[in-house]
């Protein structure tokens, strides 16, 4: 670079280093020391990436999404997710009601979905609520509410199965598994003369 276009700020300030303007952060200050300084630090890791680097007077922004997820907010989101299942259970119940009590392919498919989906949701509830849980957040309450709503959906599907006559609730439904009664008397035909 041509020396006539250079400005010596140190000379203008009387030999003292000129501070950066407010809000200015050089690349070195944000990313931390370069490779030569990294070898002198612990384990070779880069430093200076702290949320408030007071050494350089730089305020590096924190992750706002993680900062917003306090334990209370996480639990509130978990409860909101658990209660959102009411609408899907209600819609499934309405569709089972509209399909009628006859044994047709559509009504059987609706009821089988009404039985299978809540069972699957209850079995996977632990994995479902992992995204809301951390060391400080207890998601037992929202998970129990979620499972209770799914049990209500399962009860509706079982009631519909009973109304369709597909649940074995009568003794006549188990006749094929019963042993034939043992005869107490024997009748013989007459003799020929």
What does this entry look like structurally?
- There is one protein chain.
- This protein is an all-alpha fold and 193 residues long.
- The protein folds into two domains: 19-62, no CATH class; 68-167.
- It contains nine helices and two strands, in the order αααββαααααα.
- It has helices at 9-12, 27-31, 35-38, 64-68, 71-83, 85-98, 105-123, 125-128, 140-164, and strands at 52-53, 58-59.
- It has a two-stranded antiparallel sheet.
- A hairpin with a 4-residue loop joins β1 and β2.
- α5 (71-83) runs parallel beside α9 (140-164), α6 runs parallel beside α9 and α7 (105-123) packs antiparallel against α9 (140-164).
- The longest helix is centred in the C-terminal third of the chain and has 25 residues, at 140-164.
- The chain starts with 8 loop residues before the first helix and ends in a 29-residue tail after the last helix.
Essential attributes:
193 residues, mainly alpha, 2 domains, two-stranded antiparallel sheet, 9 helices, 2% strand
Form type: rod-shaped
Number of domains: 2
Distance between the termini: 140 Å
Mean pLDDT: 78
Task: Itemize the secondary structure elements and their pairings.
Layout: H1 9-12, H2 27-31, H3 35-38, E1 52-53, E2 58-59, H4 64-68, H5 71-83, H6 85-98, H7 105-123, H8 125-128, H9 140-164
Antiparallel strand pairs: 1-2
Helix pairs in contact: 5-9, 6-7, 6-9, 7-9
Short description, anyone?
With 193 residues, the protein is mostly helical. It is built from nine helices and two strands. It folds into two domains: 44 residues, no CATH class; 100 residues.
């Amino acid at each position: 670079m041509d020396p006539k276009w250079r400005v010596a700020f140190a000379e203008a300030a009387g030999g003292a280093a000129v501070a950066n303007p407010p809000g200015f952060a050089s690349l070195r200050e944000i990313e931390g020391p370069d490779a030569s300084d990294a070898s002198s630090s612990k384990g070779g890791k880069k430093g200076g990436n702290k949320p408030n680097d007071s050494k350089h007077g730089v305020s590096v922004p924190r992750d706002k999404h993680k900062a917003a997820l306090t334990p209370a907010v996480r639990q509130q989101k978990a409860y909101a997710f658990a209660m959102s299942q009411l609408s899907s259970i209600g819609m499934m119940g309405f569709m089972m009601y509209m399909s009628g009590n006859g044994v047709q392919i559509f009504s059987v498919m609706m009821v089988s979905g009404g039985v299978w989906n809540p069972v699957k949701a209850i079995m996977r509830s632990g994995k479902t609520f992992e995204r809301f849980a951390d060391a400080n957040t207890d998601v037992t309450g929202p998970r129990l509410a979620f499972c209770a709503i799914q049990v209500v959906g399962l009860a509706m599907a079982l009631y519909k199965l009973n109304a369709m006559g597909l649940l074995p609730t009568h003794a006549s439904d188990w006749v094929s598994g019963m042993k034939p009664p043992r005869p107490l008397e024997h009748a013989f035909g007459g003799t020929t003369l």
